[in-house]
Amino acid sequence: MSESVQYSGNSASAGRRRARRARFLVPALLLGVLSGVGALAVAGDGEDQESAASGSLFQPSANAWPVFRGNLLGTGVAATTLPDEPKLLWTFDTGSEIESTAAIVDGVVFFGDYEGRVYAVTLDEGKEIWRFDAGTPIKAPLSVFDRVVYIGDEYGLIHALDAGSGEEKWQFETLGEIYAGVSLHGDRLLVGSYDNSLYCLDRDSGEKLWQVETEGYVHGTPAVADGLTTVSGCDGFMWLIDIETGETIHKINLRGQAASSPAVIGEMAYVATYENEVLGIDLERREVAWAYEHEVRKFPFYASAAADDEIVVIGGRDKIVHALDPRTGERKWEWNSGARLDSSPVIVGDRVFLGSKRGPVLALDKATGEPVWEFDTGSAIMASPAVASERLVIGSLDGILYCFG
Fold first, then answer.
1. What's the pLDDT tens digit per position in 91-121?
2. Burial of 232 (0-12, 13-18, 19+ CB in 10 A)
3. Taking the alpha carbons of 54, 262, 348, 102 in that order, is the dihedral positive or negative?
4. Angstrom distance (rounded) from CA 129 to CA 195
5. What is the enclosing helix (H) or strand (E) of 289?
6. Cα–Cα distance measured from residue 327 to residue 289, given in angstroms and rounded to the nearest whole number
7. Which of 14, 70, 257, 309, CA to CA, is 20 to 30 A from 77?
8. What is the per-residue pLDDT across 194-208, written as a single tens digit (0 to 9) for each?
9. CB 346 within 8 A of CB 353
10. Can you tell me the distance from the alpha carbon of 16 to that of 116, in angstroms, rounded to the nearest whole number?
11. Is the Cβ–Cβ distance between 334 and 322 less than 8 Å?
């Protein structure tokens, strides 16, 4: 095992700070909302696949984790494998809390911390390549498309950074904090802000192409498919928006505020709400097909589900990992972790990996929910795993990035 705590390498600075302005207050418990991470369905006409950059993101990649939940379908399913007993390969200590979920592309891990630093470190050894100082906390997941890193910060700025050097290419200012990841459709970027808006930007220049105002915070990563994007949130609706025009096409009633992003399998989307429910949404009929609620423990869901053809799995603030039948919503198993679960799970083969507010990184048997592996970090974990190239990377609130393999 090698441990990397050095901070050598070139530093890129934002270089420009602006006057502080009136900002949106963030409640201690997010009642606001999110946009879906993932896509509504695989594009049937190939429109989204016109761009190799966006088309390749619809399926899990064994060697990359370029967006939150791993792909534009938001499934949280890894295409690589991990050892039966993953070992700690290296750590990287930032000295500041890590809530940001990492991206992994071309053997490099990209992530941010509460001090506002964005890091690029090698996946093999955890050696720093560069860092960029945004000057304000980074809590959003990172996205990497065609050698450009996209990240939002708590000042409301979206930064586009060169993946090789960390040099800033452009920035775009919104009027609220950004906790959403950036999504992609061809030459257009999509990102939500706590100014209650979803933005569409030109990926090369950062120029605003359109802005849709919702009725609440936009917390999650926008979904993309068939020329549409979706955002769902504190108004209790999933919005379907035309990416070309910014026109609202339809709204689906989610029966409550949502703080998780959808995972999409075929014509079904799976999303959890602050009304203690996990929903199966029929995207073709544009309605809720089933709803699951624990019969005893009534707590909200903040994490996003992982889903495949066999299972929908999600952790809740009830401290329980819930595994559901994707067709009916019936419970397959549950496992009590003993601590609140805000980390979104990832399915890796026949196991489910996630972090816990109690400190451990966990692996559960996908079929039974029985714990099969655990590593105690000694600190709360809110970030979600990023899994690629037979490695799992996750950050903790003690400021340490961990790599297992």
1. 999 999 999 999 999 999 999 999 999 999 9
2. buried
3. positive
4. 33
5. strand 287-293
6. 9
7. 257
8. 999 999 999 999 999
9. yes
10. 14
11. yes
Q: Decide: 262 and 281 in contact? Cβ < 8 Å.
A: yes
C-alpha to C-alpha distance for 321 and 313, rounded to whole angstroms: 7
First-residue to last-residue Cα distance in the chain: 11
Report the SS3 class of residue 49: helix
CA-nearest of 135, 167, 148, 131 to 9 is 131
Domains assigned to the chain: 28-404 (2.130.10.10)
Chain segment 281-323, per-residue pLDDT in tens: 998 898 999 999 988 888 888 899 999 999 999 999 999 999 9
Residue whose C-alpha is closest to residue 108's, from 92, 95, 96, 94? 92
Q: Please tell me the chain's helix, strand, coil percentages from 3-state DSSP, rounded to the nearest 5.
A: 5, 40, 55
Specify which residues 197 forms β-bridges with: 193, 213
Q: Say which amino acid occupies 169.
A: K
Location of structure tokens 């397959």: 332
157 phi and psi, to 5 degrees? -95, 140
Place of tokens 């065609």: 146
User: Residue 267 in contact with residue 283, Cβ under 8 Å?
Assistant: yes
Taking the C-alpha atoms of 196, 202, 205 and 209 in order, what is their torsion angle to the nearest 10 degrees?
-60
By C-alpha distance, which of 312, 303, 289 is closest to 77? 312
Name the CA dihedral angle for 93, 259, 163, 50, rounded to a multiple of 10 degrees: 150
Q: Which residue has the tokens 């569409």?
A: 200
| Beta carbons of 324 and 332 less than 8 angstroms apart | yes
Q: Which residues pair with 292 in a beta bridge?
A: 278
Alpha-carbon gap, residue 102 to 180, rounded angstroms: 13
At residue 31, does pLDDT exceed 60?
Answer: no
Which stretches of 66-207 are assigned E, i.e. beta strand?
88-93, 103-105, 108-112, 117-122, 128-133, 143-145, 148-152, 157-162, 168-173, 183-185, 188-193, 197-202
